[in-house]
Design brief:
Bound molecules: copper (II) ion
Radius of gyration: 16 Å
Shape: globular
Largest sheet: 7 strands, antiparallel
Number of domains: 1
Length: 136
């Protein structure tokens, strides 16, 4: 019980530190950016746009991109999706299902065409319901 609590605290700290995603979790050379729509995300389906650039800033084509969404509480069923190439360097998940509100951790697992793999972590807060007035 105590160990579990400690592990939970450790995970929370990691998530806070890892928020920007750079240099924390097995990063790729270059950059990975994750966009979500709507912003802020709300429980339900959301569009994820993952942008991958190489070290020179050129879009990376032909990558395999998988996303696992989870939360740092017990009993959470992770959500998995495969992103589809939509434009050079841009990969999309059209309807990523945020199954509950709160702090989510997106693990973006990327395999480049040359076989290089990397993992990008993105944290975001998912609202339980849309902000007032947003549905008008
Ligand atoms: Cu949850």
């Amino acid at each position: 019980m105590t160990l579990r609590a400690l592990a939970g605290v450790g995970l929370t700290l990691l998530v806070l530190v890892g928020c920007r995603g750079d240099g924390v979790e097995d990063p790729l050379p270059g950059s990975v950016e994750v966009g979500v729509s709507p912003t802020p995300p709300v429980v339900g389906p959301a569009l994820l746009v993952i942008r991958i650039d190489d070290e020179a800033g050129s879009p990376v084509e032909g990558a395999e991109v998988d996303v696992e969404g989870t939360m740092n509480h017990a009993g959470m069923v992770p959500v998995h999706a495969t992103a589809e190439a939509a434009a050079p360097g841009e990969y999309r998940v059209e309807a990523f299902e945020f199954t509950m509100g709160g702090e989510w951790i997106l693990w973006v697992r990327i395999t480049l065409p040359d076989g290089t793999t990397g993992t990008h972590r993105e944290t975001l807060r998912v609202a339980s319901s849309p902000p007032p007035g947003s549905e008008r």
